[in-house]
Design brief:
By secondary structure, the chain is an alpha+beta fold. The protein is built from 15 helices and 18 strands. α10 packs across α12 and α11 runs parallel beside α12. The model has no long low-confidence stretch (mean pLDDT 93).
């Protein structure tokens, strides 16, 4: 039967119920119990013991299945905690209530109440003496509701995905637990949670293409933030020595299994700390989350066995290119050789690209995917690190790291550049990149430099991709699986 025909029949039934004065969307019931609270409380209570209990139980949720046997039926009612079976019999319900039950559809939101018993198959069941319609479903659930697998439908209509795929809902409960664990970890270490602007006069704090908007009253362009970094470091300058923020960033870039234009980051900054201190904190944080989430630091991700037990491997960009990528030291020591090598690999490399930028293009191609176990890549070239402190021993590199697990970057941290003169020079380098055609290069930010001139203490800061961390810890293959409403290409389908 075509969906249009099903819709027609549902609408006819709705009109019939209305004509009889039956409320289709009442809001006058209180729910005492949940499916899981009943199942857990009486998990080992046998049939005879249940018969001695006079207590009545009530649940409300979505009607997910009906097995009818003439004058009796078994219903499956699903709430936020799970599902429970309900038994309906014509001899128990009054005539009006039984007739209402006969006109319910899978997908309706209902209320049931009654005593508990166990069926012949030993399933804990509510013997309903009352059943009410709370919200009538106009549209039917997918025909095979127990196996909604079409990716497009799942992402575009997340409400359906959550209804019919219980494992999907569990991913988002896990996501909430992960964020709570992060907050607890940071607060226990005396970090203060703060909020910084989502709309900024300059797109700063990262190398990325921003979304642009316009504020009518102020008559000025604003940008959805690509990172909160420069504002958080203003707070460090102001004396708030340990701060963190969990919130959204927006980058006008491509979409992939681990990129979404709108994503969640946790950034934190600690005065009187170095990037090495942050690597130790990151190890402790991830171990804390995994241990409290699943009770183990060992887990599988998409067939790869991951071990979060500290300490994790640390290796410089240069050494990783040589030891992991198999790139000759002579290539990554000479700009022209590096450019030629990149071009042989069909990587974008311009004649005037600095060595550090070309090195990182090669790194992304030959090293990144091989970093399966937790690995800190350190000492990034200064050309690609406009906000990082230069290394004292080799100023062509910075005191920076990125954390890779399963071939994906999960965190980026560094000792912060707090020399205002050096910061101005870095911004000038980025401006030259912009003029050369790189629209992701960092803009000049005079106000931020002015803040540094009031003296920011030695500081280290880090950003952690929450979505990618949730992917890792829930064994989710795509970032769209851990974002409730991922961005999708527009589809003109009339809302189907």
């Amino acid at each position: 039967m075509e969906e249009s025909e099903l819709l027609k029949k549902r609408k006819e039934k709705i009109e019939s119920l209305k004509s009889e004065g039956i409320a289709l969307y009442p809001n006058n019931v209180g729910v005492k119990d949940t499916a899981s609270s009943i199942l857990e409380r009486f998990s080992v209570t046998d049939h005879d013991a249940l018969e001695q209990i006079d207590e009545r139980f009530s649940v409300a949720g979505r009607l997910m299945a009906v097995r009818s046997f003439g004058k009796a039926a078994f219903l499956k009612v699903q709430d936020r905690t799970g599902s429970i079976q309900t038994f309906i019999h014509k001899n128990i319900l009054d005539e009006k209530t039984y007739n209402l039950f006969k006109r319910l559809d899978v997908g309706d939101i209902i209320f049931v109440s009654g005593k508990l018993f166990r069926t012949k198959t030993n399933e804990l069941t509510i013997e309903a003496d009352d059943i009410r319609l709370l919200s009538k479903a106009v549209r039917p659930l997918p025909e095979k509701w127990h196996g909604l697998t079409d990716i497009e439908t799942r992402y575009r209509q997340r409400h359906l995905d959550l209804i019919v795929n219980p494992k999907v809902k569990e991913v988002f409960y896990q996501r909430s637990r992960i964020i709570k664990l992060i907050r607890r970890f940071m607060e226990d270490r005396d970090f203060l949670e703060v909020e910084t602007p989502m709309m900024q006069p300059r797109a700063g704090g990262a190398v990325a293409r921003p979304f642009k908007t316009y504020h009518n009253a102020l008559a000025m362009d604003l940008y959805l933030r690509i990172a909160p970094e420069l504002y958080l470091k203003r707070l460090i300058t102001g004396g708030m020595e340990r701060v963190f923020e969990i919130n959204r960033n927006f980058r006008n870039e491509g979409i992939s299994t681990f990129h979404n234009p709108e994503f969640t980051m946790m950034e934190f900054y600690q005065a009187y700390a170095t990037y090495e201190d942050l690597m130790a904190i990151t190890e402790d944080m991830f171990a804390h989350i995994a241990q409290n989430l699943s009770g183990s630091l060992l887990f599988d991700y998409q067939g790869m066995k991951i071990d979060l037990t500290p300490p994790w491997r640390r290796i410089t960009v240069r050494d990783a290119l040589i030891e992991i990528g198999g790139i000759g030291a002579d290539i990554i020591s000479d700009t022209q050789r590096a450019i030629d090598y990149a071009r042989k690999m069909n990587l974008p490399a311009k004649d005037n690209d600095p060595l550090g930028k070309v090195m990182m293009a090669i790194f992304d191609a030959v090293v990144e995917e091989k970093l399966v176990q937790p690995t800190f890549i350190t000492q990034y070239p200064v050309e690609v690190s406009p906000l990082s402190r230069k290394n004292d021993e080799d100023p062509s590199f910075t005191d920076r790291f990125e954390l890779y697990i399963c071939g994906r970057e999960l965190a980026n941290g560094f000792s912060e550049l707090n020399d205002p003169a050096d910061q101005r020079e870095r911004f000038m380098m980025q401006l030259a990149e912009r003029e050369a055609g790189d629209d992701e290069a960092h803009e000049m930010d005079e106000d931020y430099i002015r803040a540094l001139e009031y003296a920011m203490p030695p500081t280290a800061g880090e950003g952690i991709g929450i979505d990618r961390l949730v992917m890792l810890l829930t064994d989710s293959p795509s970032i769209r699986d851990v974002i409730l409403f991922p961005h999708m290409r527009s589809r003109d389908d009339g809302g189907k």
